[in-house]
Amino acid sequence: MTTKDRFKSIFRSKPSGDDPIYGHPRYQKIRTLGQGSYGVVMLAVDKQTREKVAIKFWPRGAECINVDVQRELHHHSGFNHPNVIMFREVFITADHVGLAMELAPNGDLFKKVRDAKGLAEAEARTIFQQLILAVDYCHRMGVANRDIKLENVLLGGDKKNPVIKLTDFGFSKSDLDSIPTTICGTPGYMAPEVLMGREYDGRMADVWSCGIMLFVMLYGFYPYDDTREIVLKDIPIPDRPATSQEVKRLIRSMVERDPKKRIKMEEICQQPWVAQGVSADFLTRNEQYVSASSEHRPKQSKAVIDAILYEAGLERPEERQAREQKLQQKAVAANRSSEQGSGSSAYKDPGETMEW
């Protein structure tokens, strides 16, 4: 059973009216907003400030509180950007770990695009400009998202002038970590190199996902029917609805199957179609945000977050190292036993025993 399946089974075992923050001194549940890949998200009110917040919950225990959750919270806590959902705090209850975040009250971009059956090019550009600022900022902070999609872009501001908010860093990866090889994300948005399980640059995979998002915003449907087409077929851009040649060229450059030929994020920001209608400081705005973020002190340090996660069941580094050493020793012993057992047996053609 995968971690995701175990998570779902744990939550299904709870009564439908279960309230993870019942009796909490600060937060009070209003209603459930939804369930993502690894967390239930609820709308709550901060009883001290009367602000509405979104809270994502993970069940306590090593089955759900793992290094992926730790990485998500470490990365998110360091962000400070108007187009990224604001991190408030991590807290622990008797049964759960909660992440309190800024609330984006107008739903997600998937619902907006679905209901409109595609957006006008000018509206799509306004949203795309903000998306690129958010993703470029994360990259400058040394983090690739690896799960950029319409559902992970929330809408703040007012409905006529939405402010997009990038959220969900459950698959995020730092430049300081090992080179990504994990097949992760959402299939319709995955870059070919991710689907093929090769080493890849998470930032270039994000560029591909942003290109798919732009396509769906404009045309109201996904460009590929299955993952085989993503690996083998150049993106098919329809004639209807009519869109400018500039945006078509931009999409093709972002959804380029060879990541070495794919346009880079800093080049996207310089495209005339992207820069249209924005202020003169658009191209340098993220430099200011990154500089401010380096001086910004998160409400909770990584050490404080880790202390909460260890209490909730996260395996400590020394425990993980000891467990991995035991597994390695067992594997070596099993291999030796196999070699000794096969030493006196007659030779067999490997083709006779190979199983696929």
TrEMBL record:
Quote the biased-composition stretches of kind Basic and acidic residues, using this chain's numbering.
316-327
Span-the-membrane segments of this chain are: none
Ranges of compositional bias, category Polar residues:
335-345
Q: Where does ATP bind?
A: K56
Q: Which residues form the Protein kinase domain?
A: 27-274
Q: Name one Pfam family in it.
A: Pkinase
Recite the UniProt keywords alphabetically: ATP-binding, Nucleotide-binding
List the residue ranges of the region (Disordered).
1-23, 316-356
SMART domains in the record, alphabetically?
S_TKc
Q: What PANTHER family does this protein's entry cite?
A: MAP/MICROTUBULE AFFINITY-REGULATING KINASE, SNF1-RELATED PROTEIN KINASE 2.6
The protein, known as = G8763 protein
Organism taxonomic ancestry: Eukaryota, Viridiplantae, Chlorophyta, core chlorophytes, Trebouxiophyceae
